[in-house]
Specification:
Length: about 650
C-alpha cells in the first residue's frame, strides 16, 4: 500500500515558552516531591537516581536505621531550614519565646530551654553565637510512645550526640520539651555553623530520613521493640481518626490506576489488609472513598488535603474546649465576615515549626472563636484575659463611612464633626472624634487623605475603596489588634481610659445577652460605681450619666499620675502635652498603661509621654519628634517628616 503523508507526521512537543511569574517545576521534580510526601524511600538506587552528594551526613543517612525492623518504635521528626537574612530581625528571639511559653511543662509551668550540659541554657548567648550564621535549623521530635519516655531531655541529648557523630562536628543547640499535647515532643533549635565556624550544611537525605531513623533507634533501645499487640493497637487507633494517618498514606501508595485491589494481597498481609479495609469503610462514611466491589475501592481526589484540613479542625476544637474549661459556647472556626471582639482565653501555636500562632477568643457575641494569627505575630504581646479585635483585612470599616458622612464638599473638620455628634446626642463627642482623627492620620501616612490644617483634612470621594485596598495590602488575612492588655477585673478599678469605658459610652449595644457579653455587662455596672466614686459618673434611677469628655479626662489623670511617679524615679520634670503641641527628644522606653501604650521622650531637661506607634520601636535610643492631634500622633523621624507609618 502506498504511504500517505499523514502517516509520516510525528508530534514533537517543544519545551514550554518562557512566561512571567514563578518558574514552573520540572515534571520529574513534581513526581519526586509527591513520592516523598507519600513516604517513598530515601534517595539512592532504590528510586533509580544517584544519592544526593550535598552536605554532611549523606553517608550516615544510608546507614541509619538499617537494623530497624517493622516493630521498631516510631518517631516523627519535622524540620525547617531558616535563612536568617530573609527572616525578620527578631525571628530567632520570637521563636525562642514561643517554645519557652507558659503552660508547656508537665505541671503547666513555663518551658525552660536546656542544652548539652545544662538544664538552663543561656538563650542570649545562644543568639549571640548564631548571629554570624547564615541559617538556622529548627526541629520538632515527637516519639509515638513519648508518654513512656520519662526523660525526654536525656532522649534529646542522646539524639544530638549521635547527630554530632553522623555530621562529624560539634553542634550548637538548645531544646525545650513540651507536654501540653497528647504527644509529648521536643523543639530543637540548631545554629547553622560547625565547631570550626564554617556554615553547617546537612544532607537532604539526612534531614528527611537519617535523623528520624536515629531517633527511632534510640526509642527502640530505650523501650524495646513494639509487640504485636502494640502494633495492632496503634493501627486500630488510626481507623476512626478524622485526620491524615499512616493508614491513609499506605492506601494512597497502594492505589493504582484502577483504585485499590485487595485480591493481589498475599495471605501474610491479611491482618494489615483487614485494618486497611476498616479504614476504607470509615473513609466511605466520610465520603472520601467508594467501594467498587467486595475487594476493590477507589479514593476520592484530594483525599490527603481533605483529611489534613479535618485534622487541623479537630486540633482547633480540642484547643478551644481546653481553653474554655467547661464554659458552654458555640464554637466558631475560621468564619469570615463581621469583626470578632472579645477576651483572649487561650493561645498557642497552630504551626509550631513556622511560628504561626492562634488565639481562642471568648467573643462579646456570646460565641467562642478560633483565630489564626498572621505570620510574625508575637504571642507574648497578646496576654490571656486581654481584649482583642480581629477583622479580615480589606473589609469596609465603619469609621471610614463615618468620615465620609461627616465630610462636606470633600473636607472633614473635627469641629464640624463634634458639632454634628452633639446634635445627635453623642455621650462623648471628643472621644469619638479622636477615633476618627487616628484613622485619618493613618490614611494620611498612606497618602490617601491630605491634612490641610489643624483639624482639617481633604477627603477623596472614593475613600472607602482606597482604604480597603490599603488595609488588604498592609495586613493580608486576619488583622489582630489588642484593645486592652487588662482583664475585665483590672479594668473595673483602673484609673485610665479603658475598653470598658468605651463600652459604657456605646451603651453596650454590641453585647450579646449570654456568654462573655453578660460578663461585660456586669463589669460595666461595677465600673460605673468606681467612676461615681471618682466624680465621673452618676446614677439617676435606671439612667447613667457620664462626665463630659470621659475618656480624655481619665487619660489625662492616668498620665499625670504616671508622670509624677516617673518624675520621682528619674529626677526629670514631666511635661504634659496639649492637643497640637509638639514634643521631641530621645526615645528611652515604652510604657503600657490602661489608656494605651506610650513612648517616653527625654529632651535633656525633662520628658513627655506620647502615644506609641510600632514604627518607632526600631528608633529606641534615637532622637525623634511627635505632634499630638486629637488623641492621635504624627511621628517625625530624623530629618524627614511624616515617616511615622
Amino acid at each position: 500500500m502506498a504511504s500517505r503523508d499523514d502517516d509520516r507526521f510525528r508530534i514533537r512537543p517543544a519545551p514550554p515558552k518562557s512566561r512571567t511569574g514563578p518558574r514552573p517545576q520540572r515534571f520529574i521534580t513534581q513526581v519526586l516531591k509527591q513520592a516523598s510526601k507519600a513516604g517513598a524511600s530515601r534517595s539512592g538506587k532504590t528510586i533509580g537516581r544517584p544519592a544526593n552528594t550535598f552536605g554532611r551526613g549523606r553517608v550516615a543517612s544510608t546507614l541509619a536505621g538499617q537494623g530497624l525492623g517493622a516493630n521498631a518504635r516510631r518517631v516523627i521528626v519535622k524540620s525547617r531550614f531558616v535563612v536568617l537574612q530573609r527572616a525578620s530581625p527578631h525571628s530567632v528571639a520570637v521563636h525562642l519565646r514561643y517554645i519557652e511559653r507558659e503552660g508547656v511543662t508537665r505541671n503547666g509551668q513555663r518551658g525552660r530551654a536546656y542544652g548539652t550540659g545544662t538544664d538552663a541554657a543561656d538563650l542570649n548567648g545562644f543568639q549571640e553565637r548564631g548571629k554570624a550564621a547564615r541559617h538556622q535549623f529548627r526541629f520538632i521530635v515527637s516519639p509515638e510512645d513519648g508518654l513512656e519516655i520519662e526523660d525526654l531531655k536525656g532522649f534529646t541529648r542522646q539524639l544530638m550526640r549521635r547527630m554530632e557523630i553522623d555530621l562529624e562536628t560539634r553542634l550548637d543547640w538548645v531544646a525545650v520539651d513540651h507536654w501540653d499535647t497528647d504527644n509529648p515532643h521536643t523543639h530543637i533549635v540548631l545554629n547553622g555553623h560547625t565547631a570550626s565556624g564554617e556554615h553547617l550544611a546537612i544532607a537532604p537525605d539526612y534531614m528527611a530520613h537519617g535523623m528520624r531513623h536515629r531517633a527511632s533507634e534510640i526509642a527502640t533501645e530505650w523501650l524495646g521493640p513494639r509487640t504485636e499487640a502494640e502494633m495492632r493497637q496503634s493501627l486500630l487507633r488510626e481507623v476512626d481518626q478524622q485526620r491524615l494517618t499512616s493508614l491513609d498514606r499506605a492506601l494512597i501508595r497502594q492505589a493504582g490506576a484502577d483504585g485499590i485491589d485487595f485480591t493481589k494481597a498475599g495471605p501474610q498481609d491479611r491482618q494489615r489488609q483487614n485494618v486497611l479495609r476498616a479504614r476504607l469503610q470509615r473513609l466511605e462514611g466520610m465520603g472520601l472513598a467508594e467501594r467498587v466491589d467486595a475487594h476493590r475501592w477507589t479514593l476520592k481526589p484530594g483525599l490527603a488535603a481533605t483529611l489534613g484540613a479535618l485534622g487541623e479542625r479537630e486540633d482547633a476544637l480540642h484547643a478551644m474546649r481546653r481553653a474554655l474549661a467547661g464554659q458552654q459556647r458555640e464554637l466558631v472556626i475560621g468564619e469570615a465576615g463581621a469583626p470578632v471582639l472579645g477576651r483572649i482565653v487561650g493561645k498557642g501555636l497552630a504551626d509550631a515549626l513556622h511560628d504561626r500562632g492562634y488565639l481562642v477568643v471568648d467573643g462579646i457575641d456570646g460565641r467562642a472563636h478560633y483565630l489564626k494569627l498572621p505570620a510574625g505575630a508575637d504571642l507574648g504581646e497578646l496576654p490571656i484575659g486581654g481584649i482583642v479585635e480581629a477583622r479580615t483585612a480589606g473589609q469596609p470599616r465603619a469609621v471610614d463611612r463615618a468620615i465620609l458622612a461627616a465630610s462636606k464638599d470633600g473636607i472633614y473638620t473635627t469641629a464640624g464633626h463634634a458639632a454634628q455628634l452633639k446634635r445627635v446626642g453623642e455621650r462623648d463627642p471628643q472621644a469619638t472624634v479622636e477615633i476618627h482623627v487616628r484613622r485619618l492620620e493613618a490614611l494620611r501616612r498612606a497618602g490617601i487623605v491630605e491634612r490641610v490644617g489643624d483639624g482639617v483634612w481633604k477627603i477623596p470621594g472614593d475613600l472607602q475603596a482606597q482604604a480597603q485596598r490599603h488595609d488588604a495590602g498592609k495586613a493580608p488575612g486576619q488583622a489582630i489588634e489588642l484593645r486592652s492588655h487588662l482583664s475585665l477585673d483590672q479594668q473595673v478599678r483602673s484609673l485610665g481610659a479603658t475598653w470598658l469605658d468605651r463600652q459604657l459610652l456605646d451603651e453596650g449595644k454590641a453585647l450579646a445577652p449570654q456568654g462573655f457579653g453578660t460578663q461585660v455587662c456586669e463589669a460595666m455596672q461595677q465600673r460605673v460605681d468606681f467612676l461615681a466614686g471618682q466624680g465621673l459618673a452618676e446614677r439617676r434611677g435606671q439612667r447613667i450619666v457620664l462626665a463630659r469628655n470621659l475618656l480624655a479626662t481619665l487619660r489625662d489623670r492616668e498620665l499625670a499620675s504616671v508622670g509624677k511617679q516617673l518624675q520621682a524615679q528619674t529626677g526629670r520634670s514631666f511635661h504634659p502635652l496639649k492637643d497640637g503641641q509638639q514634643a521631641s527628644g530621645i526615645y528611652r522606653q515604652s510604657i503600657q498603661l490602661a489608656s494605651g501604650r506610650y513612648a517616653m521622650l527625654e529632651d535633656g531637661m525633662g520628658f513627655s509621654l506620647v502615644p506609641w506607634k510600632p514604627v518607632i520601636e526600631q528608633r529606641l535610643g534615637q532622637q525623634i519628634a511627635a505632634t499630638v492631634r486629637g488623641g492621635g500622633v504624627s511621628w517625625e523621624i530624623g530629618r524627614q517628616r511624616g515617616l511615622g507609618r
